[in-house]
Amino acid sequence: MRLVIADDSSMMRERIKTQVLRLDHVTVVGEAGNGIIAFEMIGEFCPDLVFLDLRMPEMGGIELLKKIKKAKMKTKVCILTNYSYPQYKSRCLALGADYFLSKSEDFEKINVVITHILNEN
Length: 121
Fold this sequence. Notes:
The protein is an alpha/beta fold. It has helices at residues 10-20, 35-45, 61-70, 86-95, 110-120, and strands spanning 2-6, 27-32, 49-52, 76-81, 99-102. It has 5 helices and 5 strands.
């Protein structure tokens, strides 16, 4: 499985990478600190999954999610945010996000998401 991690915090990107690389068959093909770079990486690397933060400079996660869906990219999208309010969750899921996780409450579920996607294929 190929992943892109989009988060403006380099520490959070490293934390996510450390978590996902514990699993077999997972490769992080790109990391981005803003939505514009993330969109370019998704187009270039065609990852199976992208982890998106909601609040990033240049282009936030919701705007990036819209662009991914408009471009009909096949990448699964997992929103991973500190802003896990119900209104954000419902909006992201309505826009086509496949998963919505809270960094503080659901971080350990990252590997569950990956395992679920791997088992689909």
